[in-house]
Write a sequence for this structure.
DNA sequence: TTGACTTGTCACCGCATGGTGACTAATGAT
DNA sequence: ATCATTAGTCACCATGCGGTGACAAGTCAA
């Protein structure tokens, strides 16, 4: 007789494997059961269906980078850097962290098409994450009259777009968005944008 | 007996209607024939299938804003504005033009997930468009040591993301990306980013 | 040994999809 | 009037999907 826990694990593993292999386009109960080498009825029995499975999967992995990873393990240090400097470096680290996570990129792409349990969990994680990050700098908002929220929204959106688009496109705006060289240029410009932008106002 | 040209028109119209109504998720021969009120076999007969139809559709519409629209009908004027000013305003107008085109937004979303005949046409249009725009300012590249291409890639990506994301999301980064008020903040920050960024170097 | 329960297998259902072949009915040229 | 062509209808196919009910086999308690 089989082992229930082991089967559940096989199914959970298969979610990540299938997403990484074929993307969310072909994602479904049948394909999932095939990937796991398991009968699909067990997905319904053990997880109550796809939504429940995605929920379980979402809670069992680290799709999103931690604040520590973004801050090179030293968030405190960033509180004392000039604002433009800090924002720029955080954004660059954020982009690097996402580039290393193909699974997260896939989920982010999925999010553009339709919401589901997995993308919802990702969105919640990100929301809480963003708020904690923002709170870290809330005391320094008076340093500038720029709209910090809108600026980070813009630059965060830029990173998201390039990350997602890079899954199946090499060139955007005459620029290689999949090579390290191309990203180097983007990172550099990201830093310059932030530095120059905040330089116009008082800096801490 | 029916009218061939009229039927072809009905089918072509249905492409836009269906995309606007249900997005590309449910896009297919059957749904398309239903929308057009026509038998699906005619799609194969008249267009050789979906790819051919998309090609025809793509060549029969103006998804992409013209350079004139982006430049308020006066591109020459932009050549004499300070570089940061010009880039910023062009980007803002670009965003506004896209916000007005739900169909284009849908195709842009499609493009992020998978390429097809329609997105290819859009990409080619945009590529040529970008090159002409870039050429307009090529003579002034010496004014700055910034990486103009990378910067416009970033800010263009930002706009694309927010445009696409706005289709089914209200809030991003604690910001309303679907209301006019939210976009006002984004536009303002976009302008400031460009102004401040280019201000550090010599400006024309 | 009996009987309840669990794990897993299998066959099946309804439905939608992309795609094709056979047909009807109108048109127009000879 | 005849006959080929054309526009459009319809039935059908294989395939894949999400989802369910019936059942075999193995486990454990009474």
């Amino acid at each position: 007789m089989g082992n229930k826990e082991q089967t559940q694990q096989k199914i959970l593993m298969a979610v990540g494997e299938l997403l990484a292999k074929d993307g969310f386009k072909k994602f479904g109960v049948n394909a999932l059961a095939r990937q796991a080498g398991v009968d699909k009825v067990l997905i319904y029995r053990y997880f109550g269906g796809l939504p429940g499975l995605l929920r379980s999967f979402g809670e069992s992995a680290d799709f999103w980078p931690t604040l520590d990873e973004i801050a090179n393990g030293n968030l405190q240090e960033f509180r004392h850097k000039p604002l433009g400097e800090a924002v720029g470096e955080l954004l660059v680290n954020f982009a690097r962290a996402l580039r290393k996570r193909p699974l997260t990129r896939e989920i982010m792409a999925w999010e553009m098409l339709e919401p589901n349990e997995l993308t919802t969990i990702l969105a919640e994680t990100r929301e809480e994450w963003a708020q904690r990050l923002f709170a870290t700098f809330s005391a320094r908002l008076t340093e500038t009259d720029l709209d910090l929220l809108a600026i980070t929204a813009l630059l965060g959106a830029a990173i998201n777009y390039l990350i997602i688009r890079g899954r199946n496109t090499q060139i955007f705006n005459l620029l290689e968005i999949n090579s390290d060289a191309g990203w180097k240029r983007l990172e550099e410009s990201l830093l310059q944008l932030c530095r120059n932008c905040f330089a116009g106002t008082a800096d801490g």
Residues 1-2, 28-31, 40-41, 44, 49-50 of chain B lie near DNA strand C (CB under 10 Å from a C1'). The longest helix of chain B spans residues 117-137.
